[in-house]
Amino acid sequence: MAFAATKDDASESGFDNFVFVIKTNLGTQFGASFTTYPLHTLAKYNDAPDTVLCAARVNGGIVWGHRDVKLMVNNGVDPDAETASARKKSFDNKVMHVVEAVRAGATTRDAIALAVAHTGCGGITTNQWQKVDGALPGRGVQVTKTAHNKYVYQVAPPNAEAAQSKSDGPYILSRTQ
After folding, report:
1. What is the mean pLDDT of residues 2-18?
2. DSSP secondary structure letter of residue 159
3. CATH 1.10.10.10 domain residues, the chain
């Protein structure tokens, strides 16, 4: 196992710290908050702080799980929340540009990808295409899978989902496919 120790920046005394597992072969990560206190003075100095031997006292219990350890170290603030929010905003932006490209007449992934690239919001990866395809039916775009794993995109007619369930024609992709 490998541990990391970090100082608690919110500590008033300056002796509060965190220790947590960064690599383990035991399963889940865990961590704890602790406070150091002096046991024995090793050397005294006139112009500098004394050198002391310290012990550690665990504050509270052990915290289990990667997310809970992150929350403990960051004073209850989730550092990944902002990243996830930015990622979601970027994805929604790409879906919006795909819908605009389809409404402008693009019908293939290549044509749509070119239109999206010209907007400056970055390309769409293969994994993102699967998620985008799942989000499009709710935004008025019909996705049809053709031969050789090709996809055709078109503006869905009104009540397309209700009409789609009654026909044996092209299907609308969902997130479960």
Report:
1. 68
2. T
3. 82-166
